[in-house]
């Protein structure tokens, strides 16, 4: 596999608060990287710089060996924990809107054959996430899991190579979460995606990921908690990835997971 994203000595600082320090990582094309770490370790900040929403204070991020552009390009899609769908648009219109924004950035409207092609594309993607029977529902009429399926469809409709997931299943019930694990695994394979997912759920991290990276501080100054930032303290490649549908042991202890990976 080839390196798709490279982080070189990346630092993120907000004022005098150092959030991340010296993060150097190579992320291979086609990998599924789970990012774990304590609250405040900088996991979401890391995703924001990969998305291009923020630029690192120091260091470089390369995409295909070229410095990342400081805006969110079509090669990257993102799904957040809270549903980011438009409440006043139907499922189909939500998905079509994503294509319209990509293809007609000024007016966000397509007409004629271009609109029909966008509709076909949207229906195909909505079928892929299991919303083919819900095209005309509005978000308020859907469950949390369905709304997250729509958010995933919106992110994938621009056919990104990289999908960034920020606790995408954190607000869902365990049963729905298991369904979503199956869905994201299938989409990762079918669309040849590279996925970077932040999660607080260690079981999810090890079940879905081909690699788990733990962010935490190596150094602490009790008198100045923001003096040192977090970095990648563990970087665990997982050769034997588990089929999410086959996993029935939520809440496994980390040492059990580590010894079984
Ligand atoms: N724009 C900002 N300005 C100042 N501080 C910020 C900003 N964004 C994030 N921070 C701080 O950076 C630190 C890391 O935040 P971040 O959200 O990346 O952590 P996290 O690991 O994702 O946390 P959680 O697991 O609780 O979501 C926190 O202390 C947060 O308050």
UniProtKB/TrEMBL annotation:
UniProt cross-references to Gene3D superfamilies, sorted A to Z: P-loop containing nucleotide triphosphate hydrolases
InterPro entries: AAA+_ATPase, ABC_SmlMolc_Importer, ABC_transporter-like_ATP-bd, ABC_transporter-like_CS, P-loop_NTPase
Keyword terms, alphabetized: ATP-binding, Nucleotide-binding, Transport
Superkingdom in the source lineage: Bacteria
Domain ABC transporter positions: 5-242
Pfam families named in the record: ABC_tran
Gene Ontology molecular functions: ATP binding
Record carries keyword Membrane: no
Protein name (record): ABC transporter ATP-binding protein
Organism classification: Bacteria, Pseudomonadati, Pseudomonadota, Alphaproteobacteria, Sphingomonadales
